[in-house]
Amino acid sequence: MTLIRLSLTDFRNHAGADLAAEAGLVALHGDNGAGKTNILEAISLLAPGRGLRRAPLSDMVRDGAGGGFAIFAEVQADRALPPVALGTGIEAAHPRRRLVRINGAAAAAASLGEWIAVLWLTPAMDRLFVETAGSRRRFLDRLVLALDPRHAQHSNRYDAALRARGKLLADLAVADQQWLTSLEAQLAEHGAAMDAARQSMLASLAAELAGQPDAPFARPLLTLTDSDGAARTAPHDPEALKAIFASRRRIDAAAGRATAGPHRDDLSAVHAATGRAAARCSTGEQKAMLLSLILAHSDCVARLRGARPVLLLDEVAAHLDPLRRAALYDRLAGQGGQAWLTGTEAALFADMPGPVTRFRIAGGRIAPG
Ligand SMILES: Nc1ncnc2c1ncn2[C@@H]1O[C@H](COP(=O)(O)OP(=O)(O)OP(=O)(O)O)[C@@H](O)[C@H]1O
Questions:
Q1: What family does this chain come from, according to its entry (predicted)?
Q2: Which of 12, 28, 313, 341 has the most ligand 1 atoms within 8 A of CB, as the residue to mutate?
Q3: Given phi > 0 = left and psi -120 to 50 = alpha, else beta, which region is 261?
């Protein structure tokens, strides 16, 4: 998948920007605060979800602009087909409602996943393995989404049913039992589908990683675990899940949250070469594992979906030694697809193998270079 055109209106510090890019590497360089990550964030919003900062939509409107914002892109998924036009943004009157247009027609955000897959690595993700299970689950679900666009619908419906059940359980004594049973049936159906998609993605990713060397990027071994840290290998059975939810109504009512289910699962990672848990590895090793994970996943999506996801690598190049940096560029250039990289120095990108589209960003302005 290639973004051949991107235009931004009142998005973060970009009042109006229009850029054309080619397949291959796209290098964005500019000083701190120039607006590089904002461009990557805009691209991340072309996929379902809240984007790479998970920020409220209203924060994304350019300060002082007073209205909404708009992101528009043309994406070429297949050279034989015309590009698809994707647009998203908000209007001033409805700052919480994300609007989406696909080829000019209004669409649900979840549908974006059918047209584009976007994977990213940002400095904020460096601590993923020591952060909360929630951030790892979100990361896991993004990996699944890149492979299986239906995942967004299942997880949206699961979350909606979970919230509705939580409201009913807040007053269990008067809760409509039939409505509870129906919500738990929805949780079981969508939860089992979500879980199956996670397990199938992890199996494909494990197979991809197994074929990759331990160097120059550290290879991780990944496992889906339950909330107690035990490995989960068999998919959730919908009937069993329904029974779990039904049997835990009192416990969940007392806890004020659903204490069991796929929304509590976690992703655990081990450094393959040393056998050490990722959380106990050095920051550099954790970064390297994430990079190798993302690169392997990109291969996985390319193999299974027939199109490579757009990769957004924010400040990744600056943290690699010259040997690893060259290895990263070679790998990205050799595989087709499109990867957007940011850095403060143009020199970081000087030796990239072509084709490379280069932009210099300064104060929210984008110029070729
Ligand atoms: N809604 C907004 N309106 C205007 N400016 C904003 C808005 N949100 C963020 N900014 C500003 O946009 C600028 C660019 O941010 P961005 O994160 O893209 O910088 P960057 O080029 O990636 O810098 P760094 O190299 O430091 O990571 C920052 O100064 C930030 O404060």
A1: Belongs to the RecF family.
A2: 12
A3: left
